[in-house]
Amino acid sequence: MALTQRLEFRQTQSLVMTPQLMQAIKLLQLSNLDLVAFVEDELERNPLLERADQDGSPDREREPAASADYAEGDDAGFSGGEGEAAAGAFEPGAEEWMAPDLGSRAEIEQTLDTGMENVFPEEPADAAARAAQDAAPTAYTEWGGGASNDDDYNLEAFVAAETTLSGHLAEQLAVAFPDPARRMIGQYLIDLVDDAGYVPADLGDAHEKLGTSREDVEAVLAVLQTFDPPGVCARNLSECLAIQLRERDRYDPAMQALVENLDLLAKRDIAALRKICGVDDEDIADMISEIRHLDPKPGLRFGSARTQSVVPDVYVRPGPDGGWHVELNSDTLPKVLVNQTYYSQLSKTIRKDGDKSYFTDCLQNATWLVRALDQRARTILKVATEIVRQQDGFFTQGVAHLRPLNLKTVADAIQMHESTVSRVTANKYMATNRGTFELKYFFTASIASADGGDAHSAEAVRHRIKLLIDAESPNAILSDDTIVERLRADGIDIARRTVAKYREAMRIPSSVQRRRDKQSMLGTALTSSSSTTDRSRDTATA
């Protein structure tokens, strides 16, 4: 068969992942914090993008796609308007300088034998003149450094810098060691302190790096362990607690034995601790209570990193008709606009082809970003609305009525792909009447029913297991097999290994450990009660 060349026309369909489509997918799975950072970068990069404020709108024409109004059903609504940004030049008002009446300038200069320019203003004796002088603006108050009645008064000028643990220790180091060599050793050790206030257990070759002896390093470390907060610069938990007990003058031999055997305290082996410490039940209970009042991580008072609270992306509120009203949190939606006026002015003055193509690309990217943000908001609202509809029992009656739900069910209901629903539910949170939950929380596996009825949600089963364990008595601890029997009696077909897996995921100890813990707590409570009764009886007898 001879090989020949020929031309053919074929019509095919294929999915092309354009850069715009890839970024739209990326925007969909970003959290609100990451989205704000992304939009800020685009605002710096694209001269045709402009931030829209909440109060007013600029006096320029805007792209129609910059606004997003969406409403779906009776129980869902969203209004994400473009907002209005005030566009006015700042015009500072002219203020008159108010000076006290101190007589004529010539008389004062003759009295003081110098010019007025060389005299600092003194406080007038007259009350009215003093009030007038207090009302006079100065450069100090204009900069935000003093009290002012102006609306633009800068309160941030008074905000103190946050004290860090290393800075707090360095301040004490300068007072504790006048010797520069020991101060250098102390600063090196302070740099090794972690956020909890501990130094490494093995300082290793610290003395070799500093060119000193191991004894000098240990001596400096002993001084650092006397710094505030008590327990700082310890090498382990036992040493940290011992430092705090010495600070309270409670580090006697019995307490020392208790601190050196914290592993037995963790196992709740009270009998062995009582034997090692050589004390009775009442004393060991008091010692354990005192240990619990100590701070195991003293450095956390000087937290170097701020805890970022969760900001919900969706709000769910009860509606007046008994349903649920779903709306987006407008504070988490970046509001950007396309400056069409600026582009039209530039297009009339630009002559170079390279500049024209650059601003054309900027216009296309800006238009795409505005539309992508609008589409992202609509998609999140649509998915959240369907989740609320599917999990109506959870919002009405609680976690015990959470239904099994998967991505495919939601995707089929809103006619989207499962991957889109998965991206929407990633890093998004919903504020409800029962707390704030991640959207993925509402997607749980199903557990078959023992009587052939509706399946149960895995999260609801975990909640029921926790309720059973919390309600058990110290004399009747529930084993995993017993929990399986009770759940099957309630119509839940579950295996023992599944119960063990759920229990460990909730950090609930085994039945043996729970029995030991509750019996030790019960024995401690009975000992304290009997001791209180004996003291009351002795007092009454006396």
Count of individual beta strands: 10
Q: What strand line-up does the widest sheet have?
A: 5-4-7-8
Radius of gyration: 36 Å
Shape: extended
Helix proportion: 40-55%
- Overall mean pLDDT score? 77
User: β content, as a range?
Assistant: 5-15%
Unreliable runs, pLDDT <50, ≥5 residues? 58-104, 119-125, 135-148
Structural class: alpha+beta
Query: Mind summarizing the main beta sheet?
Result: 4 strands, mixed
The number of helices is 23
Distance between the termini: 123 Å
Tell me what the structure shows.
This protein has 542 residues and is an alpha+beta fold. Among the domains are: 156 residues, no CATH class; 102 residues, no CATH class. Helices cover 49% and strands 7% of the residues. β4 and β5 form a beta hairpin. The longest helix has 38 residues.
